[in-house]
Design goal:
Helix content: 10-25%
Number of strands: 9
Oligomer: single chain
Number of helices: 3
Structural class: alpha+beta
Strand order of the largest sheet: 6-3-8-1-9
Distance between the termini: 104 Å
Length: 223
Amino acid sequence: MSDDATQRTQQIAPVQLKVSGRTLAFITGGGLVAGALIVLGAIMPAEFNTDPLGIGKLSGISRLWAPESKDFKAGGGVTLSHSSTAPRMSHVVDIPLGAEGWPEAALEYKVHMTPGQSVLFRWQVLNADGSPATVPVEFEQHGHDVVDEHVPETVVDYRKDRALSDEGSMTAPLEGIFGWYFRNHAPDPVIIRIEFEGYYSLIPPGQPGNEFRIRPKETTASQ
């Protein structure tokens, strides 16, 4: 190699790439953001069925996690969701039952409901002084449509049992009157206190379902 070539080679200095702290921080932050987006937008929807950014739903990635599914169809023509044009109501009713053997030892009380309407209820057996009773009453929770006397009724039986209290819900599969029949088996009179709330209409005293002319009290829950 000639002296000129050697001199030119020695004059070539190595190039040093200088990166500022701001640029390095930007690159590092961008990598962290990109990684977070991958985790939140792809890994979590696909592996854990969690889609905080909504990207999994838009891209279809979330379906990778979802199991096979099929639509549930309710039978009997009953819809699973019901919208009511009537306001929500809430009442309390005290039903007096005579001692065992009295004609007034058994009594029935119902409300009117249309298909899909529901009632939340709670009832308890009380002594005449308001203290909790100790002898369970016989009850039947049922309902039926209201038809002409020459047409057979369609009866809906919910439950039959003996208890000192009960609570739950009741949904009407058809238009009609729904409620309870109670019979006292204690030697003293008792009171059945029912609290109910939902979508229904009261039956006027003396009409079918309220032959004993019970008058419920409206509560503030419906206000």
